């Protein structure tokens, strides 16, 4: 801008000089007084007018002080902004949540997903084929041992039982007849034995001929054979009677099993059939669960195998509105690791059955695996990892500084700190923290 003013001033001076030369050329040359005539003396003097018309030359005006230092004020403004930003960033304290690190008892925990199962669960099925004619239970019903779950059409089994019972009765009569025949044969044999003994005595005294003694011996032998045959007939009749009785028992059992009963007291959790369905042998009718045998089966990573012991206390949380929390204990740990998931299962017994439950229901279990006295722990919300390394923001002289730490086990919303912090130090949970940020504890009005 000063350059343009200087050029404008130079042009103005040139124009004035050119105008002055033109005025001097056109003006008349003055003469001496002796050369003036009376007419010349009577004319007005043109010099004052020429002096009025001649421009006055002046020197160019120097630039103003503001234009003399155009960048000075900009630099001052930038510096002022920088100082203001520095003050806002590093000198104005921010309210953050403070957490003192104090020694305390720390209970390490393992948390894992789980599902509800039962140690005593029966999928009750039929032992014979038939059509369902009665189904007195529904899902959710409470039953006692031997309560009727379903009834199949009994007519076929009842008829077969009647036939078996008739066969058994016939076999029993055959046994009686065989025993009667055996008794007759035994009596005849005993009589002929006595007669043969008498004949033998007479033959020894020479009273009877030898032919009579031989005839007596033959009769005795025949009687003995008849007795043996009668005894075998009795044994066969008894075997047939036993077989008939067994068949009767089978038919009676099948008739009884036409009525499907609960094997133990529990709750019916599934009824997959309906009245009128025709079932084959072994078809499922209902599922009965003993609520006293409920367990939760959790899946844990194989790295935790050595940390699980029977009897450890645990907490089970069932999702819902509201969520339900139960106490539990570790029953056993499976020593087989799944080849794909690299996990093993742990069974936990709840202290009491959930108020509302279903087999296969999902849950989360938290197992207390170890307790240490005088441990240091920090809330998980204070963790601020950098490049995969865990760390926290520690307060020192009213400012926070990032520090790496070594973590241990987890307990709820707290994590054990094995190294990196000392008792009495304070860590913070800050929004977008940075090195050397000035902080103060959050006031109660801010919801600390």
UniProtKB/TrEMBL annotation:
Keyword Transit peptide applies: no
What residue ranges are annotated as transmembrane? 71-90
Ranges for domain Multidrug resistance protein MdtA-like barrel-sandwich hybrid come to: 121-289
Question: Domain of life, per the record?
Answer: Bacteria
Instruction: Give the Pfam families listed for this entry.
Output: BSH_RND
Q: Which residues form a coiled coil?
A: 161-240
- Please list where the region (Disordered) is annotated: 1-62
Assigned keywords, A-Z: Coiled coil, Membrane, Transmembrane, Transmembrane helix
Q: Which GO terms describe its molecular function?
A: efflux transmembrane transporter activity
GO cellular component terms, A-Z: efflux pump complex
Which family would the database say this protein is a member of?
Answer: Belongs to the membrane fusion protein (MFP) (TC 8.A.1) family.
- Name this polypeptide is given: Efflux RND transporter periplasmic adaptor subunit
Species: Acuticoccus sediminis
């Amino acid at each position: 801008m000063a350059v343009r003013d200087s050029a404008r001033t130079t042009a103005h001076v040139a124009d004035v000089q050119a105008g002055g030369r033109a005025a001097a050329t056109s003006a008349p040359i003055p003469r001496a007084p002796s050369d003036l005539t009376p007419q010349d003396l009577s004319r007005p003097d043109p010099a004052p007018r020429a002096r009025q018309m001649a421009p006055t030359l002046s020197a160019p005006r120097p630039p103003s002080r503001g234009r003399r230092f155009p960048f000075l004020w900009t630099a001052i403004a930038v510096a002022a902004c920088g100082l203001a930003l520095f003050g806002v960033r590093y000198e104005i304290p921010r309210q953050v949540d403070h957490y003192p690190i104090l020694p305390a008892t720390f209970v390490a925990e393992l948390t894992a997903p789980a599902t509800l199962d039962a140690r005593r669960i029966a999928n009750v099925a039929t032992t014979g084929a038939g059509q369902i004619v009665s189904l007195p239970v529904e899902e959710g019903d409470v039953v006692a041992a031997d309560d009727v779950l379903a009834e199949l059409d009994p007519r076929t089994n009842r008829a077969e039982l009647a036939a078996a019972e008739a066969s058994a009765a016939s076999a029993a009569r055959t046994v009686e007849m065989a025993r009667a025949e055996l008794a007759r044969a035994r009596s005849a044999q005993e009589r002929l034995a006595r007669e043969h003994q008498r004949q033998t005595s007479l033959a020894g005294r020479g009273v009877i001929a030898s032919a009579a003694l031989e005839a007596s011996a033959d009769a005795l032998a025949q009687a003995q054979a008849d007795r043996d045959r009668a005894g075998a007939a009795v044994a066969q009749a008894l075997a047939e009677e036993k077989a008939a009785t067994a068949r009767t028992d089978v038919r009676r059992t099948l008739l009884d099993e036409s009525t499907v009963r609960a094997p133990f007291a529990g709750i019916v959790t599934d009824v997959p059939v309906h009245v009128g369905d025709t079932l084959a042998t072994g078809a499922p009718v209902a599922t009965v669960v003993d609520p006293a045998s409920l367990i939760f089966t959790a899946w844990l990573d194989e790295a935790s195998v050595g940390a699980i012991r029977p009897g450890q206390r645990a907490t089970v949380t069932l999702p819902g509105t509201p969520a339900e929390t139960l106490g539990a204990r570790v029953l056993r740990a499976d020593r087989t690791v799944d080849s794909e998931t690299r996990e093993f299962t742990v069974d936990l017994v709840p202290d009491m059955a959930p108020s509302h439950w279903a087999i296969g229901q999902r849950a989360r279990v938290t197992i207390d695996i170890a307790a240490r006295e005088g441990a240091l722990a920090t809330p998980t919300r204070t963790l601020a990892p950098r490049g995969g390394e865990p760390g926290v923001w520690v307060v020192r002289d009213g400012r926070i500084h990032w520090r790496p730490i070594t973590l241990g086990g987890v307990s709820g919303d707290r994590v054990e700190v094995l190294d990196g912090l000392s008792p009495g130090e304070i860590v913070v949970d800050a929004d977008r923290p940075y090195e050397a940020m000035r902080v103060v504890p959050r006031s109660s009005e801010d919801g600390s």
